Amino acid sequence: MVLIAEIPLVVCYGVLAHLSSARDSHLLALGALLALVLLMLVSPLAARRAWAWISLPLLAAACWALYRAGLAPVPLLLVPVAFIGVVAWMFGRTLAPGRTPLITRIANLLDDTPRGDDGPALDAYTRWLTRAWAVLLLVLGAVNLVLAMIATPEGLLARLGMEAPVTITHVQWSWFANLFNYGIVAGFFVLEFQLRRLRFPGRFPGFFRFLRQMGGLGPAFWRDQLR
To answer: What share of the chain is helix, strand, coil (3-state, %, to 5)?
Structure first.
């Protein structure tokens, strides 16, 4: 049930965040912030966590205060950076000595083909893939931060009264942050899956079955990666 609510909230946030930039609307930026607050709290709210019910009106009031101060678009500049940074950290921290790389852990959960002579090669590949995801996401996060800084007229440098040597429009920033990010990640995901099937023929199922398996991991699995 929580996932059913989270998917529309993700779509709602993305649409409102982009439209707020395209139309230079602080009211739509407020709507995007409120959608983001609900997205972050929907799971603990559904679990009847007291802290979530206390946090909801406080965060909503903070969003309203930002809107009244004319600052509602500012947090939206940093949301893609923060989100991508957290996911990159989730991948990178599992590469530390003594830990199981995240992709190796997922492969162990989903792979129903008995390990054979390709076991060590598969472990090496999933470690490499975990590192590749961490690097890709770190680069994307850095690009998003730079674009957020040089966007005009409401980018981070412009807000600080500084002039960037190179600028882009706020709408151009929004296209990258709210659309191209997902396209780059999805493209890497699809291409890597094809590479994996070539590297280990017969071991991995079809793409859509793999997506169903990934969806079956559930939100609890991903929340555990933050601990």
So the answer is: 75, 0, 20
Q: Determine the Cα–Cα distance for residues 219 and 212; give it in Å rounded to an integer.
A: 14
What residue type is 118 in one-letter code? D
pLDDT tens, 18-43? 999 989 999 999 999 999 999 999 98
Predicted TM-score (pTM) above 0.70: yes
Question: DSSP strand E in the chain: where?
Answer: 151-152, 168-169
Going 13 to 16 to 18 to 24, the CA torsion angle's sign is negative
Encoded tokens for 43: 């799971």
Nearest to 77 by CA among 199, 217, 192, 172: 172
DSSP string, 149-166: HHEETTSHHHHTT---SS
From the CA atom positions of the chain, what is the Rg in Å?
20
As a whole number of Å, the end-to-end CA separation of the chain is: 23
Rounded Cα–Cα distance for residues 213 and 4 (Å): 17
Q: In this structure, how many other beta carbons lie within 10 angstroms of the beta carbon of residue 169?
A: 14
